[in-house]
Write a structure and sequence with these properties.
There is one protein chain. This protein is an alpha+beta fold and about 230 residues long. It has seven helices and eleven strands. The strands form two sheets. It has a seven-stranded mixed β-sheet with strand order 6-7-8-9-10-5-11, sandwiched between helices. Strands 1-2-4-3 form a four-stranded mixed β-sheet. α3 runs antiparallel to α4. The longest helix is centred in the last third of the chain and has 15 residues. It is globular. The termini are far apart.
Length: about 230
């Protein structure tokens, strides 16, 4: 099938038209309206700053059902003794910059260029994108960010400056989101790291049904700075 060139309007072709590797379309922009239209249809941007914007909808889709979260014995020990402090939406810009600077052994350069950073910062200012910060002795040592649509969290990227920091933040956030009624975490594509935490691949058509149902649920717009249910147990 052809790779679609997007028009100025914030519309996308059906995801069933995606290539085998998941590429659906090229072009367009990173405006909030287009990004929200994309994520609500199971589409996300992923490209190097040296290329046009590429839009993806892979099949199968990597997801985590919060009830299936796996926590290793070693992580349970860290959580029990509160080895890190976890906050939400207190340092979004710092988190996304750290994610962009993180070294990925399977990537040449970063996909999280300046344009992408500005786009997600705008979504954060609109109360749609959220960050999870992991601290030790006042220093930001790990974190992650993503989008919340209804009761679906679309994870984007994470980083760690010390061992287990991002995993600690991810586990803590998933547990909190589960208490808030989130039933689906979109992880996009397979990684061994996500697999170890309980995420698994499901057919795209199944993911889209779950996504459509989840985004109809009441959301949590605005900053999550003081959402009590997100606090570590």
């Amino acid at each position: 099938m052809p790779i679609y060139s997007l028009p100025k309007e914030h519309v996308f072709p059906p995801v069933s038209h995606a290539e085998e590797d998941g590429i659906l379309a090229v072009g367009g922009d990173l405006s909030p309206d287009r990004l929200l239209a994309a994520y609500s249809q199971g589409i996300f941007p992923w490209y190097s700053g040296r290329k046009p914007i590429l839009w993806w909808s892979p099949d199968p889709r990597m997801v985590l059902f919060p009830a299936e979260l796996k926590v290793s014995k070693s992580m349970k020990q860290l959580l029990k003794r509160r080895a890190f402090e976890v906050t939400y939406d207190t340092a979004f810009v710092d988190v996304i910059k750290a994610c962009a600077e993180a070294v990925r052994h399977d990537q040449d350069g970063t996909w999280l260029g300046k344009d992408m950073q500005r786009a997600y910062i705008k979504l954060h200012q609109l109360g749609v994108a959220h960050s999870v910060e992991v601290w030790r002795e006042g220093a930001l040592v790990g974190g992650l960010y993503g989008l919340a649509l209804g009761r679906v969290f679309c994870g984007e990227s994470m980083f760690a400056h010390v061992s287990n920091a991002s995993k600690y933040g991810f586990i803590t956030a998933v547990q909190g989101l589960r208490r808030l009624g989130f039933e689906l975490i979109d992880c996009q594509v397979y990684t061994e790291h996500l697999d170890s935490l309980g995420a698994r691949e499901i057919p795209r058509h199944e993911f889209l049904k779950l996504l459509a149902a989840g985004i109809l649920q009441p959301g949590l717009p605005g900053a999550w700075t003081a959402v009590a249910a997100l606090e570590q147990e």
